[in-house]
Recover the amino acids of this structure.
């Protein structure tokens, strides 16, 4: 069973054009890790690049709070997915 640390939400760059989201993107993990501001700024940074593709397959959970965080970062436009 993964530890809570392993479930912390994160964004990793894989290669030059792929963004991989990992961990639990549910409100309890976002709040507990204190990562909301950092995640928000990272999503905004990567979302500005048109050539990025987003891989959500490594996420262990996503609720409406995590989804809204992504949607706002993507400026309410669906990005390209792997």
């Amino acid at each position: 069973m993964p530890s809570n640390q392993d479930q912390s939400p994160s964004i990793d760059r894989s290669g030059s054009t792929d963004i991989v989201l990992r961990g639990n993107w549910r409100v309890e993990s976002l709040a507990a890790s204190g990562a909301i501001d950092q995640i928000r700024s990272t999503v905004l940074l990567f979302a500005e690049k048109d050539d990025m593709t987003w891989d959500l397959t490594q996420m262990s959970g996503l609720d409406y709070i995590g989804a809204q965080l992504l949607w706002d970062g993507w400026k309410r436009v669906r990005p390209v997915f792997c």
Observations:
- Helices lie at 27-32, 36-47, 64-73.
- Strands lie at 10-14, 18-25, 53-62, 80-81.
- The mean pLDDT is 85.
- The first strand starts at residue 10 and ends at 14.
